[in-house]
Specification:
This protein has a domain of 171 residues: Acetylglutamate kinase-like (Carbamate kinase, 3-Layer(aba) Sandwich). The chain contains eleven helices and 20 strands. Strands 3-6-2-1-9-11-12-10 form an eight-stranded mixed sheet, with helices on both faces. Helix 1 links the parallel strand 1 and strand 2. The chain is globular and about 75 Å long. The chain starts with a strand and ends with a helix. The chain binds adenosine-5'-diphosphate, aspartic acid and magnesium ion.
C-alpha cells in the first residue's frame, strides 16, 4: 500500500499514561503525511508479571490459558493508545491479532505466523483511520488465541510490513538503535548506523533482545528494511538491511550475552547409530530448542553428550532425558543452571582469520574458563560460568576495539 508506514512501540514505550501520550503524539505527527499502522506491546513488564501470577497457581500452567492471559497485555495497550489518539482528534481503531487477520499455527506460547489476511486493516486504512494492532498474538487453527514467543511484537510488525507492502518498518524502543553491546551493561557501547540481516539474526539469536530473531528471518525473506530507533528522540537509529560491501570491513560488529541458558549432560550413552536422533527427537517433540551440542569422543563404546537449552525448558528437558537414559541404558543426567553464553558477531569474520583465537585469549587473560564453544560463519559463542558474564562482555567489547 502506498505511503504506508508501520510503527512498532515496545513495552517500555507504553509503560505509563505519560508514555502512551508520547506515543500518540509521535503517531499523529506521522499520520499527517502517511497512512499509519501501529503495533504495540504490553505495557512495561506486564507479560513477565502475568507469567509470574500464573506460576503462583501451577508449576506448569496450561498453555492455551497462558496464551489467553498473555494476550490481554497487548490488548490493554491497543485500547489505551487508541483512546489517546482519538482524544487528539484523529480517527483510529484498535484491532487484536485475530481481528487484524494474523493466522498462527497450533504451538501455544511459541506460535509461528502462517499467513496474514490484511483485508480488515486495509479497509480501515482506506477510511483514513490510524490502525493500532496488538503485537505478539494471532488466531490458531482451533480458533484459539496464540502468542508468538517472547518479543513477538517485532515479528508482528515486520510481518505486517511485508503483507501490506508498507514503505517503512520503524521499531521504536528505549535505546537509540542497535549498539555494539547492550548499553545497559557496556557503558561505552556505540550505536551502529547499519547492520546486515545476518548479523542481526546472529546477535538476536545469541541474546541481544533488542530485536526478536524470528522477526529478522521474516525481514530477510521479504527484504523489509527495519529502522530501530528511540521512542523518545528524533535521532536516526540503526538500519537493518541487505548486506552492502562496506559492512565487510568491520570484523566484529557486536558482543552479546544470554543468561537464559542451562547446560545438560547425559553420560555413558551407548555409541551406536540413532542414539542422538532419539535424544534430540524427543526434545523436538516437546518443542524444546537445543542450542550447543558437544559429544565426547567414545571410550569403551560409550559417549557423553552435553547440550544447552533455555532455562525455561530445563525442568521438562531433565525429566525427559532421565526417561530416555533409562530406556537407552545410559548413565546419569547432570545439569547446571549457572551458565551463560557470550558471543561475538560480525560478517568481517568470514575474511579475517584468527578471530576465534583472539576471543579465547581475551577470556583466558581475564581468568574466564570456557566450558563449550560453537561457531558459525559470522559468530563465535562460548558457554561460561554465569558469574563471569558482565566481565566477559566488557573485556571482549574492549578487546575487539568496539568502545
Ligand atoms: P521493547 O520493549 O521496546 O521491545 P526490549 O527490551 O525488547 O525493548 O529491547 C530493548 C533493550 O534491548 C534495550 O533496553 C537494551 O538494554 C537491550 N539490548 C540488548 N542488546 C542490545 C544491543 N546490542 N543494542 C541495543 N539494545 C540492546
Ligand atoms: N509482550 C511480549 C513480551 O514481553 C511481546 C513483546 O514485547 O514483543 O515478550
Ligand atoms: Mg522487544
Amino acid at each position: 500500500m502506498n505511503n504506508l508506514v508501520v510503527m512498532k512501540f515496545g513495552g517500555s514505550s507504553v509503560a505509563t499514561p505519560e508514555k502512551i501520550k508520547n506515543v500518540a503524539a509521535r503517531v499523529t505527527q506521522k499520520a499527517k503525511k502517511n497512512r499509519v499502522v501501529v503495533v504495540v506491546s504490553a505495557p512495561g513488564d506486564m507479560t513477565d508479571d502475568l507469567i509470574e501470577k500464573a506460576k503462583c497457581l501451577a508449576d506448569t500452567p496450561d498453555l492455551r490459558e497462558m496464551d489467553l492471559l498473555l494476550a490481554t497485555g497487548e490488548i490493554q495497550s491497543i485500547a489505551l493508545l487508541t483512546i489517546a489518539i482519538k482524544s487528539k482528534g484523529f480517527d483510529a481503531i484498535s484491532l487484536t491479532g485475530p481481528q487484524a487477520g494474523i493466522y498462527a499455527d497450533n504451538v501455544h506460547t511459541k506460535a509461528k505466523i502462517k499467513k496474514i489476511r490484511p483485508q480488515k486493516i486495509i479497509s480501515e486504512l482506506k477510511k483514513d483511520k490510524i490502525v493500532i494492532v496488538a503485537g505478539f498474538q494471532g488466531i490458531n487453527p482451533n480458533d484459539d488465541i496464540a502468542t508468538l514467543g517472547r518479543g513477538g511484537s517485532d515479528l508482528t510488525a515486520v510481518a505486517l510490513t511485508a503483507a501490506l507492502k508498507a514503505t517503512e518498518c520503524e521499531i521504536y524502543t528505549d535505546v537509540k538503535g542497535v549498539y555494539t553491546a547492550d548499553p545497559r551493561v557496556v557503558h561505552d557501547a556505540k550505536r551502529l548506523d547499519m547492520l546486515s540481516y545476518d548479523e542481526m539474526l546472529e546477535l538476536a539469536g545469541v541474546g541481544s533482545q533488542v530485536m526478536m530473531s524470528r522477526s529478522i528471518e521474516v525481514a530477510k525473506k521479504y527484504n523489509v528494511v527495519i529502522h530501530v530507533r528511540s521512542s523518545f528522540s528524533d535521532e536516526k537509529g540503526t538500519l537493518i538491511m541487505k548486506e552492502v560491501p562496506k559492512m565487510e570491513n568491520v570484523v566484529v560488529s557486536g558482543v552479546a550475552f544470554d543468561k537464559n541458558e542451562s547446560k545438560l549432560s547425559i553420560t555413558d550413552v551407548p555409541d551406536r547409530p540413532g542414539i542422538a536422533a532419539k535424544i534430540f527427537g524427543a526434545l523436538a517433540k516437546k518443542n524444546i530448542n537445543v542450542d550447543m551440542i558437544i559429544q565426547s569422543a567414545a571410550s569403551d563404546k560409550r559417549n557423553d553428550i552435553s547440550f544447552t537449552v533455555s532455562k525455561n525448558d530445563l525442568k521438562v528437558a531433565v525429566s525427559l532425558l532421565k526417561n530416555i537414559s533409562k530406556k537407552l541404558g545410559g548413565g546419569t543426567v547432570i545439569f547446571d543452571e549457572n551458565v551463560a553464553k557470550v558471543s561475538i558477531v560480525g560478517i568481517g569474520m568470514r575474511s579475517h582469520p584468527g578471530v576465534a583465537s583472539k576471543m579465547f585469549k581475551i577470556l583466558a587473560d581475564n581468568g574466564i574458563n570456557i566450558q563449550m564453544i560453537s561457531t558459525s560463519e559470522i559468530k563465535i559463542s562460548c558457554i561460561i560460568s554465569s558469574r563471569d558474564t558482565t566481565q566477559a562482555v566488557r573485556v571482549l567489547h574492549g578487546g575487539f576495539g568496539l568502545g
